[in-house]
């Protein structure tokens, strides 16, 4: 069933944040409260200076109160702002109580501009920083009711509208379209409405803005945490996949070692010279198995709790010689070029060939999903030429290399950005074999994925 729209009471409660349960506190409370102390002290100084300037121009000429009392009342009205964010509702209550008491006894003090600003800031701070929103609504409502009640009392019981109009010299004339008494009342009402409306609405908007910022920060932290978890899971999954593949390769080496050991044992008694060949094979196979196991352990060392296994048996894993077959299933116009001597692809060790095959597979899948390109080019290279002395590649690729490169000339397709987890797997494979990867946009347009892995020393 479609959700019914909330009533006006629910919308009003949501606007005031009554049922939100969120409390606004400064990001750095110690610094915020220290700044409030300085702000309150500054308002005290400004209020004292304003009182003296007003006294100097005759503002308190008809005021019987002594000068020191004027200063004291001015400072007392501004001092509570020192705690405006620590105790916002208490500060509002104290400041507006000061307004009512002083307004009834020494009204000229409350009309000073610095104190008018103080009353505005106190109301604004109470709405913006009150942690208990229900109490805020009650306290602010009581303050507003008291203010407008005081205003009505001033008009009705104080000097009166007629007396004020007479003092202004407008009792017998009407300069505008509206009666002077009505105009004076409406004018004061308009000013006070704008004054209190600005403080209340401005403070509430600030509170809503702070709550939205905190929600966005929490959502961003959650997204970042989930992204990191997905990346970690992708790394674990890829490493487990590498582990299964290398397990098959190492198992193959161990099987060969067992067969050759049995053959050598039988030959030792009758023809020791002939037994040297199986023993040499055992030596080479064992070294290669140990090297592959070290690479596996180095890759998986950083992963914790990577337990789990994939079910069932699998078909033989593809190798470098199977890369050209990817063109048939890519869904693109793929050109495959092989730069290698005859038989060189089959001679590449199985773990290296599988890693290069998976790299080409992932790169072509990315072209199909995330690029506007309709064609791609795959280059497979195997180079076992001796590395010349002084060549920068001598240290990393002393016995040659096997490489796969996937190029396209497209642009990123709008709205199809991936998670990047596939490229994480590519880099994990490269790190396993100690190779290098070049992944990124091309200067001439398009995208390049190139992975080069070192070949082991060729055994006789």
UniProtKB/TrEMBL annotation:
InterPro entries, sorted: HATPase_C_sf (IPR036890), HATPase_dom (IPR003594), Sensor_HK_TwoCompSys (IPR050482), Sig_transdc_His_kin_sub3_dim/P (IPR011712)
Gene3D superfamilies to which the protein is assigned, alphabetical: 1.20.5.1930, Histidine kinase-like ATPase, C-terminal domain
Catalytic reaction equation(s): ATP + protein L-histidine = ADP + protein N-phospho-L-histidine
Domain of life: Bacteria
Residue ranges of every copy of the Histidine kinase/HSP90-like ATPase domain listed in the record: 351-457
Root EC class: transferase
Molecular function GO labels: ATP binding; phosphorelay sensor kinase activity; protein dimerization activity
Alphabetical UniProt keywords: ATP-binding, Kinase, Membrane, Nucleotide-binding, Phosphoprotein, Transferase, Transmembrane, Transmembrane helix, Two-component regulatory system
Keyword Kinase assigned: yes
GO cellular component annotations of the record: membrane
TM spans (from-to): 37-59, 65-82, 89-106, 112-130, 137-161, 181-207
EC code(s) of this entry: 2.7.13.3
This protein's record includes keyword Transport: no
UniProt-recorded name of the protein: histidine kinase
Organism the protein comes from: Krasilnikoviella flava
């Amino acid at each position: 069933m479609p959700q019914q729209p909330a009533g006006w009471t629910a919308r009003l409660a949501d606007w005031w944040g009554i049922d939100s349960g969120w409390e606004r506190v400064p990001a750095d409370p110690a610094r915020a409260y220290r700044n409030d102390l300085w702000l309150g002290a500054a308002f005290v100084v400004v209020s004292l200076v304003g009182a003296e300037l007003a006294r100097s121009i005759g503002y308190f000429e008809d005021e019987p109160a002594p000068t020191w009392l004027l200063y004291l009342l001015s400072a007392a009205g501004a001092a509570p702002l020192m705690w405006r964010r620590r105790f916002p509702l208490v500060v509002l209550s104290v400041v507006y109580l000061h307004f009512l008491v002083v307004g009834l006894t020494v009204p000229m003090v409350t009309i000073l501009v610095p104190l008018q600003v103080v009353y505005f800031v106190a109301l604004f701070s109470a709405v913006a920083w009150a942690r208990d929103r229900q109490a805020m609504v009650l306290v602010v409502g009581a303050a507003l009711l008291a203010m407008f009640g005081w205003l009505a009392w001033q008009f009705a019981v104080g000097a009166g509208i007629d007396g004020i109009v007479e003092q202004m010299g407008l009792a017998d004339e009407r300069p505008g379209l509206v009666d002077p008494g009505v105009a004076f009342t409406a004018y004061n009402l308009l000013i006070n409405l704008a004054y209190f409306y600005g403080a209340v609405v401005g403070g509430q908007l600030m509170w809503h803005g702070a709550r939205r910022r905190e929600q966005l920060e929490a959502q961003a932290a959650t997204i970042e945490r989930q992204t990191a978890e997905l990346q970690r899971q992708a790394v674990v999954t890829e490493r487990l996949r590498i582990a299964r593949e290398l397990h098959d390769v190492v198992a193959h080496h161990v099987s060969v070692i067992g067969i050759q050991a049995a053959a050598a044992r039988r030959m030792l008694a009758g023809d020791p010279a002939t037994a040297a060949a199986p023993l040499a094979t055992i030596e080479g196979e064992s070294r290669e198995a140990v090297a592959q196991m070290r690479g596996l352990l180095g890759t998986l060392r950083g992963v914790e709790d990577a337990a789990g296994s994939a079910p069932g048996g699998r078909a033989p894993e593809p190798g470098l010689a199977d890369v050209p077959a990817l063109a048939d299933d890519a869904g693109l116009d793929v050109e495959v070029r092989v730069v290698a001597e005859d038989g060189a692809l089959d001679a590449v060790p199985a773990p290296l060939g599988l890693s290069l095959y998976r790299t080409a597979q992932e790169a072509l899948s990315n072209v199909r999903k995330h690029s506007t390109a309709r064609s791609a080019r795959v280059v497979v290279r195997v180079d076992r030429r001796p590395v010349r002395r002084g060549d920068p590649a001598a240290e990393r690729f002393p016995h040659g290399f096997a490489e796969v490169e996937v190029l396209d000339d497209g642009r990123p397709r709008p709205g199809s950005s991936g998670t990047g987890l596939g490229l994480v797997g590519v880099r994990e494979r490269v790190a396993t074999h100690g190779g290098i990867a070049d992944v990124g946009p091309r200067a001439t347009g398009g995208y390049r994925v190139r992975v080069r892995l070192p070949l082991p020393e060729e055994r006789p």
